[in-house]
Design brief:
91 residues, single chain, elongated, alpha+beta, four-stranded antiparallel β-sheet
Length: 91
């Protein structure tokens, strides 16, 4: 008979949790530093786009990235680009 809460099972569970946390943290930090350097994220999926100059929403595991492209004025076609990262899913 296998005990569900044996010490061996607890150690394996905590090792798996630590590995998952390290992998997620690595993924998040890679995307964070890419966004900080005005580059697009690698580990996110494109969710939606807007017709305001090309704003694009990306979603990752536990965070979202918004790539803002806004036109400053209708007379000049200068597009301002800004990338924003958040730990929320609210769109």
């Amino acid at each position: 008979m296998i005990k569900l809460c044996s010490k061996k099972n607890k150690k394996i569970f905590f090792k798996i949790l630590i590995i998952i946390f390290i992998v997620w943290n690595s993924i998040f930090l890679i995307d964070y530093f890419r966004v900080k350097n005005d580059k697009l994220p690698i580990f996110c999926f494109k969710l939606a786009g807007l017709q305001d100059g090309g704003t694009i929403y990306y979603i990752g595991i536990g965070y979202k990235v918004i790539d803002f492209h806004t036109i400053e004025s209708l007379s000049s076609p200068i597009i301002e680009k800004k990338i924003y990262m958040s730990l929320e899913y609210n769109l």
